[in-house]
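Per your request, structure below.
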């Protein structure tokens, strides 16, 4: 169902801002696997985290679900304990294909946690009480001035003992660290078959769309949103994932 990512393989006279359109949806699994160090580990571990923290009979949100990889992982790991998942993405191309992937998963599992896919802006979504929320490389695409309000709404919706899983690309305040890890990230992409042209054009396309924060900014924002504690559970180069507790 997924194609090889060749979106930036040929010279583009004017590189437009990155959009999660049909072309991206078709190649997204290949793109993210070759672009995000540790992505398969993060996805599989989200299922493990759900098994640890999702409370029986409660709702789980996958916000900015793209093609539903995190939702599929949680369905593989969670017991049939009355939980259900709502996966949300604002791009119709992504949510449509997400439904296709979940339907294919349904055919492979004897029984599966119910999962509903919604096309919506997560900033305008009314969140119901829930025990777990996943923001897997989503917050970095939200305008910076809207990030705290979103986290506050998530914190308010989470039940006692609930958790937020927040995965993000990081910037670093120390320029030496930033330059070293950014250079290694480009080396990771080259090792996965991307050309210098592809790397440069993708960087141009995404620089006005994705705005990473330093880890310290994330941690302070989570405190400001009302989370009692957050900790880093995974980092590979300049990509990480955190768990924030109510």
């Amino acid at each position: 169902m997924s194609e090889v990512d060749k979106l930036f393989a040929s010279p583009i006279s004017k590189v437009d801002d990155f959009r999660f359109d049909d072309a991206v949806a078709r190649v997204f699994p290949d793109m993210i696997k070759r672009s995000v160090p540790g992505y398969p580990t993060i996805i599989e571990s989200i299922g493990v985290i759900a098994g640890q923290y999702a409370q029986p009979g409660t709702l789980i949100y996958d916000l900015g679900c793209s093609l539903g990889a995190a939702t599929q992982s949680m369905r593989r790991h969670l017991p049939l304990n009355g939980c259900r998942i709502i996966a949300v993405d604002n791009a119709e191309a992504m949510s449509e294909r997400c439904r296709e992937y979940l339907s294919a998963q349904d055919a492979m599992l004897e029984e599966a946690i119910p999962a509903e896919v919604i096309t919506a802006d997560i900033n305008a979504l009314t969140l119901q009480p829930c025990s777990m929320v996943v923001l897997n490389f989503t917050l970095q695409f939200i305008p910076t001035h809207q990030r705290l309000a979103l986290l506050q709404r998530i914190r308010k919706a989470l039940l006692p003992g609930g958790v937020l899983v927040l995965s993000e690309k990081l910037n670093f305040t120390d320029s030496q660290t930033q330059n070293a890890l950014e250079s290694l990230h480009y080396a990771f992409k080259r090792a996965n078959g991307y050309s210098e042209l592809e790397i440069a054009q993708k960087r141009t396309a995404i620089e006005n769309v994705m705005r990473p924060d330093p880890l310290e900014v994330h941690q302070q924002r989570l405190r400001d949103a009302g989370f009692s504690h957050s900790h880093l559970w995974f980092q590979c180069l300049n990509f990480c994932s955190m768990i924030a507790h109510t």
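The longest helix spans residues 92-108.

Regards,
D.
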